[in-house]
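Quick illustration, no need to memorize.
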Amino acid sequence: MTPDEWPWQSWARCAPDRTALTVDNRAYSWTTLAEKVEALATGFHRQGVRAGSGVMLLSGNSEPAVLAYLALLRCGARLLPVNPRLPACQIATLLPLLNIDYALTLDGQAPANLPALKILSQPGAVAHRWQRDAIATLTLTSGSTGLPKAAAHAFDAHLASAHGVTTTLGFTADDSWLLSLPLYHVSGQGILWRWLYRGGKLMLAENSSEATFASLVPTQLWRLLRQPSLELRTVLLGGAAIPVELTAQAEARGVACWCGYGMTETASTVAAKRADGKPGVGQPLPGHRVRLVKGEIAIQSQALARGYWREGKLLPLTESDGWFYTRDSGLQVDNDLVIAGRLDNLFFSAGEGIQPEQVEGVLAQHPAVEQVFIVPLPDEEYGHRPVALARLKETGSFPQLQRWAANRLAGFQRPVRWYALPELESGAVKYSRRKLADWVWQQRQR
């Protein structure tokens, strides 16, 4: 990939016939991909999209979504991928703050009062040049403490993230990466930029066993391991507590498991290590610096967003010292960065501090636990009490897990209620702790 060309155009020139994208049983060469992107970009340009236009892409993962993502960037648009399952009222609240001029709706309900774009392939070429330092995307944060913020990343930030991950994990042009996470989430976009950075193959396929690399949350890996055969060679895990039993099973199948740490503001992963049965995410990847300040994780990185976009302005992301303070608590153990949890998630029960991620890490060690969350339940006497929501294997039960945890958790850490993890947000990469806590409160009211 050369520094002064759009990535797909660079690969079309250097490796024109190499496979760039597979969609089920169909394959695109880099030449074909570049031609399709140019035709779509010409269509968007003729509908009014110009450099600096704000465009919302309302879509899940699909072939049209990937092509549109690249084509809108090719026009110079400031691209905002959005979860199509977000309620229309939430989208309507966000859009006026983000200077959005057009909407391309491939899934979900088209927003009112925004010009709608159509997928139109037209002959021609777009004159907009590749500028690595230009803002490319706005990506919504999880909004766990209120209205989501829009992290504004330049192209060079996405590429810096891709460099760190691919260099460490060994992804090359001979490999394929499964688009296993949604493009409206920073981890899904991270997959796209690793593909473009190294010129490998991106896979959109029902048969996910054919990819050699994948970024997954634990639940997805559990499901993949049920398949009789796997080409999968390397997995980057994140998004939840990672059960030791899961990584042990995967490694036994020949799948190298990496535990990663990152966030929307850092364009995905900033630290990772090969799973070793111990908590921690290793050391910073190339291009990133991490330090602890009074127990809080702070980051300096080439992949950091330029700021939070709001009403045409970039609100500062870093402090005056140039570091981004994450609100994640952590510690160093034997040269290994251990994520203790969100400072925002800490709650107190009878004066004792409970860090949910710490309790989750203990419970995730049980072989029957696939995924688990601890949330606070308001209590008149104690202030709050811990409640567990877990997804168990068929062989597991809550009484069994409760007995197992009894001598592994302090009395104030032991959940007072246990629930099956509800499916609250179809298509989400991460659960919202706030919504899980609201759900628990609703159960109490019944």
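The radius of gyration is 22 Å.
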